[in-house]
């Protein structure tokens, strides 16, 4: 693995003080020539403030959500063009918390994915099964169905430069997670599925894992051939923990070169 992707998704957390402290600690101690691709997705209201701290760092900015329109009478929304305008590069789409709490369905996810790509932003497309689907062995089927929604509507080429984030819903924020070998099996299945459809596109996507990642379990996940990175929620909120995770991954990739 050459450039593991580490995404810190802050969800609905943060404040001006927290951001100041977080980047004071992180930027003082992190390697600015890191081999990791690090992305932070703060709440919408703090994107500009975070961007200000990121200016002289290798960390990229991502948004947790986006609207499907470019402009107009859509009170409370933020367009992909606006995100691009302030320096955002990535957008999380289809996170289970938006699917569940905001009733985002596949139709909405297709539109958000398309709007994101059209604005020149890179999607982080979340997929993953719920507890019932996990217990009834429907994980692979569910993931492929979710990916196929995009492929059927927008074509396989639309997946170019997409980060697919496999997040089993039952593992998010719970401190429980599937075994890294199980996740490897799912990732490989997804990769082969895309490869069968278009070999070139499969080389241009990354597949990361998300769900209760912490300093203790990250090595086991990133040691798997088809896990290209991680999407971290709660463990990304503390600068020291996040910094340790980055250092840990850097060490891991310099000692154990794969692929
Ligand atoms: O976006 C992040 C994922 O939902 C994982 O969250 P978590 O690390 O708190 O389980």
Automatic annotation (TrEMBL):
One of its GO terms (molecular function) is triose-phosphate isomerase activity. GO terms for cellular component: cytosol. It is found in: Cytoplasm. CDD domains: TIM. It holds the Pfam family TIM. SUPFAM superfamilies: Triosephosphate isomerase (TIM) (SSF51351). Substrate binds at residues 9-11, 173, 212. GO terms for biological process: gluconeogenesis; glyceraldehyde-3-phosphate biosynthetic process; glycerol catabolic process; glycolytic process. It catalyses: D-glyceraldehyde 3-phosphate = dihydroxyacetone phosphate. Pathway: Carbohydrate biosynthesis; gluconeogenesis; Carbohydrate metabolism; erythritol degradation; Carbohydrate degradation; glycolysis; D-glyceraldehyde 3-phosphate from glycerone phosphate: step 1/1. The active site is at 95 (electrophile), 167 (proton acceptor). Its EC number is 5.3.1.1. Keywords: Cytoplasm, Gluconeogenesis, Glycolysis, Isomerase. The keyword Cytoplasm applies. InterPro entries: Aldolase_TIM (IPR013785), TIM_sf (IPR035990), TrioseP_Isoase_bac/euk (IPR022896), Triosephosphate_isomerase (IPR000652), Triosephosphate_isomerase_AS (IPR020861). Homodimer. Belongs to the triosephosphate isomerase family. PANTHER family: TRIOSEPHOSPHATE ISOMERASE. Involved in the gluconeogenesis. Catalyzes stereospecifically the conversion of dihydroxyacetone phosphate (DHAP) to D-glyceraldehyde-3-phosphate (G3P). This is Triosephosphate isomerase. The lineage of its organism: Bacteria, Pseudomonadati, Pseudomonadota, Gammaproteobacteria, Enterobacterales.
């Amino acid at each position: 693995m050459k450039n593991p992707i580490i995404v810190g998704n802050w969800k609905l957390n943060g404040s001006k003080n927290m951001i100041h402290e977080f980047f004071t600690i992180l930027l003082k101690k992190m390697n600015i020539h890191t081999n990791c691709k690090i992305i932070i997705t703060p709440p919408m209201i703090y994107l500009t403030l975070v961007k200000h701290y990121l200016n002289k760092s290798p960390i990229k900015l991502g948004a947790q959500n986006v609207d499907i329109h470019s402009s107009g009478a859509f009170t409370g929304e933020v367009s992909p063009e606006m995100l691009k305008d302030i320096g955002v590069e990535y957008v999380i789409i289809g996170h289970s918390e938006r699917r569940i709490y905001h009733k985002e369905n596949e139709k909405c996810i297709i539109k958000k994915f398309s709007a994101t790509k059209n604005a020149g932003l890179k999607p982080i497309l979340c997929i993953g099964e719920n507890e019932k689907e996990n217990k009834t062995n429907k994980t692979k089927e569910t993931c492929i169905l979710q990916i196929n929604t995009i492929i059927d509507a927008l074509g396989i080429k639309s997946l170019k430069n997409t980060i697919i984030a496999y997040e089993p819903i039952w593992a998010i924020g719970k401190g429980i997670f599937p075994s890294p070998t199980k996740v490897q099996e799912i990732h490989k299945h997804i990769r082969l599925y895309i490869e069968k459809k278009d070999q070139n596109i499969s080389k241009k996507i990354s597949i990361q894992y998300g769900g209760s990642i912490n300093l203790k379990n990250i090595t086991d996940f990133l040691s798997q051939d088809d896990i290209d990175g991680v999407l971290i929620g709660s463990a990304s909120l503390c600068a020291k923990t996040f910094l340790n995770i980055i250092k840990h991954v850097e060490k891991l990739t310099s000692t154990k070169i794969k692929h």
